[in-house]
Specification:
Number of helices: 10
CATH architecture of one domain: 2-Layer Sandwich
Distance between the termini: 20 Å
Helix content: 40-55%
Shape: globular
Strand order of the largest sheet: 1-2-3
Structural class: alpha+beta
CATH topology of one domain: Tetrahydropterin Synthase, Chain A
Radius of gyration: 24 Å
Strand content: 15-25%
CATH class of one domain: Alpha Beta
């Protein structure tokens, strides 16, 4: 019989949410083959389904789609509990249907109440059936859309759906001449995570919060009251360049900011501007439950 380590048991548990004893037995029976052990767990129906409707779903994918005319697009985050289940064909088919539904929905619509494209019933009804079938909670967490009257909307999905970006570029030039810039910029958004388009959009509450953080840091450093406001002003100016897309140095050409690249292309094409963007990162802001693996392992050892 193959020697099974607790690390292997933990990995199988993380992937299937089955009990530790079940995971250990499945690994032993599969000779330590992780994929065969996962299959055995699923075939025996040991993957946890209890309380699945309220379980935290922080895995899954971010997906996007652009309309046929290129003038609008949507981005959607659909979560599921485990990385393994995120590769399930039924789950992925549901994600595709949700994206198709969002693409024709009105801005700000309650997606859950709409008929699922290619499904039987509403998005919510189909989601509930999928939860029952997979034994894991599935949530359509959020969606957004962008559109332009002229120009193009472009999407970029990174790392198999871990991060996605949707970008709207306003221009009267041929969209084909803008596609390279749009693709590079959407990739930049996914990689660098800007929060705002430009400094004029930065929320005052965010600036105030950041100022408080810098003020506390300067106090810890012993900076006198008289000089702190000026230092904070400089730090806020630098911070705004870090969180605003147009002020960030391009990941493609670090010698130029996104604003400079856009202005150069605008001059060449006779007008161009970045209208808006959306960036979703899978599971961001979702509080994940931390299992006490050590305690469970000790309990298992005690029989």
């Amino acid at each position: 019989m193959a020697q099974i380590s607790m690390q292997q048991v933990k990995e199988l548990r993380d992937r299937t949410q089955a009990g530790l004893n079940d995971c250990k037995k499945a690994l032993e029976e599969s000779g330590g083959d992780m994929e065969k052990a996962v299959e055995a767990i699923l075939k025996k129906g040991l993957a946890k389904s209890a309380k699945r409707a309220g379980a935290v779903a922080a895995e899954g994918v971010v997906a996007a789609k652009i309309a046929a005319d290129g003038l609008s697009g949507v981005i959607v985050e659909v979560n599921i509990q485990t990385d393994f289940a995120a590769r399930n064909k039924d789950y992925l088919a549901f994600v595709d249907q949700v994206v198709e539904t969002a693409l024709v929905a009105d801005d700000g619509a309650d997606l859950a109440s709409l008929p699922l494209k290619g499904g039987e019933g509403t998005v919510e009804e189909c989601r509930q059936r999928l939860v029952a079938k997979l034994g894991e909670n599935v949530t359509v967490r959020r969606w957004g859309s962008l559109r332009v009257e002229s120009g193009l909307v472009h999407a970029y999905i990174h790392m198999g759906g871990k991060v996605g970006a949707l970008l709207a570029v306003d221009t009267k030039a041929d969209a084909a001449k803008v596609k390279g810039f749009a693709d590079d910029t959407a990739m930049h958004i996914a990689a660098m995570g800007p929060r705002y388009l430009d400094p004029s959009q930065v929320d005052q509450g965010d600036k105030d919060k950041q100022s408080e953080i810098y003020d506390s840091q300067l106090k810890e450093e012993g900076k006198p009251d008289a000089v702190r406001p000026k230092i904070i002003e400089g730090k806020i100016s630098k911070w705004m360049k870090e969180v605003c897309l147009l002020e960030q140095p391009s990941v493609i050409d670090s010698e130029k900011t996104i604003r400079q690249q856009a202005e150069a292309l605008s001059k060449e094409l006779g007008g161009l501007s970045i209208k808006a963007f959306l960036r979703y990162e899978r599971g961001e802001g979702v509080e994940k439950k931390q299992d006490d693996f050590a305690a469970e392992a000790q309990k298992m050892a005690q029989g």
